[in-house]
Amino acid sequence: MAKLSTEELLDVFKEMTLLELSAFVKEFEDTFEVTAAAPVAVAAAGGAAAPAEAAEEQDEFDVVLESAGDKKIQVIKVVREIVSGLGLKEAKELVEGAPKAVLEKVAKEAAEAAKEKLEAAGAKISVK
Q1: Short-list 13, 5, 17, 122, CA closest to 65
Q2: β-strand partners of 107
Q3: How many whole angstroms separate alpha carbon 122 and alpha carbon 109?
Q4: How would you list the strands of the sheet with 61-67, edge to edge?
Q5: How far is CA 79 from CA 39, 47, 71, 83, 99, in A?
Q6: SS3 93
Q7: Which residues contact 75 (CB under 8 A, 6 or more apart)?
Q8: Model-level pTM greater than 0.85?
Q9: Could you read off the pLDDT tens digit of each residue along the chain, which spans 128 residues?
Q10: 98 CB-near residues (< 8 Å, 6+ apart)
Q11: Prior bond of 39 cis (ω within 30°)
């Protein structure tokens, strides 16, 4: 078999569909016992390692009640709904003691949902 130049290989790859190219990459990885993902990750990490890692690391959020606003009773009801096992007295103390964390180390979706409910009740919320 004749040896192909880099340009010739690229021309062949340009004519392949994505499925064919994906199958080729998988076969290449199996044949040479390598992964194509590792060099790409190293190349991406070279220029912007710190911001990329910081964005990926934050998977836990804290929902902090900054103030209850005018509708304190509505906010207390929502706090009791969001925080399981919280009694009326504990919820009232939490709301009156603002700024305090309502939820700690929760997923982004849960934090956003809690923030929406509390803001709808009239509270001022921050997600950290």
Answers
A1: 122
A2: none
A3: 20
A4: 100-106, 61-67, 124-127
A5: 47, 43, 12, 6, 13
A6: helix
A7: 65, 68, 69, 95, 118, 121, 122, 123
A8: no
A9: 678 888 988 888 888 888 888 888 888 888 888 776 544 444 444 555 555 555 556 778 888 888 887 888 888 888 888 877 778 888 888 888 878 888 888 888 888 888 888 888 888 888 88
A10: 65, 66, 67, 68
A11: no
> Phi and psi (nearest 5°) for 23?
-65, -40
Q: Which residues contact 67 (CB under 8 A, 6 or more apart)?
A: 98, 99, 123, 124
Q: What count of Cα atoms within 13 Å lies in the side-chain half-sphere of residue 126?
A: 7
Residue count of the chain, please give it: 128
Q: Are strands 124-127 and 100-106 parallel, antiparallel or unpaired?
A: unpaired
Contact 121, 78 (CB under 8 A): yes
Paired strand residues for 126? 64
Which tokens hold the place of 109?
A: 């979706």
If residue 111 lies in a helix (H) or strand (E), which one and from where to where? helix 108-120
